[in-house]
Amino acid sequence: MIVTFYSFKGGVGRSMALVNVGEILADWGYRVILCDWDLEAPGLERYLVDGRKAGGASPEIAGWLARPGLIDLLQEYKETLAKPPELAEPGQPSPEVPSTHQVVGKVTLRRPSSHAVLTSSERRRPGSLSLLTAGRRDGDFYNRYAEVVRAFDWDEFYEKWAGDAYMDFFRLDLAGDPKAGKPGAADIVLIDSRTGVTEQGGVCTHHLADLVVLLSAANELNLEGALWMARALADPRLVEVRDGRPLQILPVPSRIEQTAQKEELVTFRRRFRREFRRYIPAAVGRAEELALRAEIPYMPFYSFTERVVAREPESQREQKLYAAYVALADGIVRCGGASGLLPEINAQGRVVRSSLPSYTETSERPKGLILLGYAAADRSMAEIVAQGMSAAGVQVWADFLAQQAGNPWQDSVLRALEVCTGYVLLLGPGGISPSLRAEIDYALNRQAAQPEFRIVPVELPGGDTQSLGPLAGLYAFPLPSGFSPGSSEATEFFTSLAAELSVPGTDSSPAVDEKVPPYRGLRSFDESQARFFFGRAAEIQELMGRLGQARLGGVRWVQIEGASGVGKSSFVSAGLVPAVRRGWIPGTSKSWIVASCRPGLDPLASLTAALDRPEGMAPSERQARLAASERGLCDLVRAATSGGESFLLVIDQLEELLSLADAGKRAQTDALLATALEDPALPFYLVTTLRSDALDRLTELPRLQGLLNRGAVRHQLRPLSEETLRETMTAPAKLAGLTFESGLAERILRDLRPGP
């Protein structure tokens, strides 16, 4: 679906509305492409960079300006048509067409989607947001850009360069033809159109659009101009020119002052509803409701720099402005759904994709596909890795394999992520390219939507692990240098990699006892209820990776910090501990001894009760060993792990050691734990939970505080987001064979939102 944002005059907040709506649609799970068609006044990329932090000449802005965009596509198309077609020699195969291009008739054209680049996001989301810029404008290219735009003749383009055919190609590549079952690069393309009466504005509204969002400010010039455009777009003759493609119109009042002139505001609203009622699609609802819900207020605070309210944390958003953009996004989705151009949204407010390709699953293979990501320079190593993974029972998706098999996604690696259950990233000497970084961002968004989605970096010989960026917390599997495919070393490596990619609980989870309720109420989760524990999978995987890194030379200690009642105990007992038992700490044994305790008044007695190993040793002897020297815990752990096991000690509510135990027992426990952590040969791992308000008392445990400052893993557990709260409600019910009444989850979430 293509949606063009148009205004008769500038200054009505058109670009700001477009970017905010794009962000919201991506949050809902749609694949969105923003297209900057305001060629005479480009700059949509500035809304995607926080100007308050970056400044006008930031590296991010420079990166966007260096990218080719719309005008480069148009020029390349004309240059391609001006050249004679390249014919293959008799008896020779036709040259291979790269995935960035498509054969159209007798010419090979660049796909417009190949210049659309995925944007970064500070939060993870189920959809994606990409940008097709107006064109390259860095350095000397700015003057060239200006010259090309000034000289571009749109009438000539249509008359002499088959512009109508190219725009059809442009439309189908980006948005596809959903009614014919032909997917495009995006679900929704949002075009930022030139204002006024212009040729390029006509291309955006009359030719390309399925829906025109018509924005108008509250003055006579804007209103009359918007009405004139609405009449032109509603002319039945336009549908004939468009080969029967219907065109919908969504009028929206924008940049409306809210604080003064109440009488004038009421008068404007009445006139707006009266004049535009006839143009509002029935799918949207009553004109009165839309005009009020989607009316975009003027907020002076957001006029300084390009601030995008939909990109801000929920607690910092201007809610009235954000609500207007949400209403506009909802109107667009309603129009697209009614016309069959958009996937449906479920009761949880997320996109439902019912026509994804499916793959045969066997008991010998992990569920689903694994996408292999790599830089172009590492293609040969990627092929070796793909072969090794396949031999280990992993179904691999890679672009070079897809081209051989005629996979329909060969034009877009990102689409493959929608059906894959994991992502393996190869880190070569060249680091991470911009396209690979976009792939990583999309994989992170995918993981946010489905926490069981696995992301595993693999370090190639000479690889640059410093460039992991947002994956810095994950353990990178080092590929042995110089190994030969098929060797025992290679088999061992790929078997370990396959185990890391498996999704525990997907196929082998025990059946749910119908007598056991899926909710814990006010009680914390323990390990036996791990299957009902949702909402923290991404955090758990990150911590497992960081512990894997610590195994190679760091401090093998994770401290979970957070406010009282945030869920620290449940996170450890039903999240971290089951993950450890499954072998999720890279490079460790899957045979674990787990001991848990709370310090209480006598931490040594609590440790003794938890340490029920080695077998055959009386509790009194264990306590005596602990009290005998600071190596007492080391001795007990070494005896307990003589069979090659690893040992995890969980101390919940570490603040009890600070508030309940006397100074002598505090010092003794501090020495025991620190000595065990400082022994590099001891397979000992420590997990503690601590209330945030007790952090300043850690000075009373000087040796542990020293280790904490020298590299122990500290994780701040924060309250769940609204999206993960929804998951914690609906996922346990689904696991127990129950379903939520339509709208119930949203109603509960609404009740939980802060407010009067």
Note down, in words, how this protein is organized.
The chain is of the alpha/beta class and 756 residues long. The protein folds into four domains: 2-86 and 104-351, 3-Layer(aba) Sandwich (Rossmann fold), CATH 3.40.50.300; 369-501, Toll/interleukin-1 receptor homology (TIR) domain (Rossmann fold), CATH 3.40.50.10140; 527-716, Rossmann fold, CATH 3.40.50; 725-752, no CATH class. The protein has 28 helices and 23 strands. Helix 21 (603-610) crosses helix 22 and helix 25 packs parallel to helix 26 (702-709). The relative contact order is 0.08. Mean pLDDT is 81; it is low at 354-367, 402-412 and 503-512.
Residue share in β-strands: 5-15%
Note the main sheet.
7 strands, mixed
Structural category = alpha/beta
- List the total number of helices: 28
CATH architecture of the largest domain: 3-Layer(aba) Sandwich
What is the C-alpha radius of gyration, as a whole number of Å? Answer: 30 Å
Q: Helix fraction?
A: 40-55%
Shape category: globular
Total count of strands: 23
Using the coordinates above, name the CATH class of the largest domain.
Alpha Beta
Fourth-tier CATH superfamily name of the largest domain? P-loop containing nucleotide triphosphate hydrolases
End-to-end Cα distance, whole Å, is 38 Å
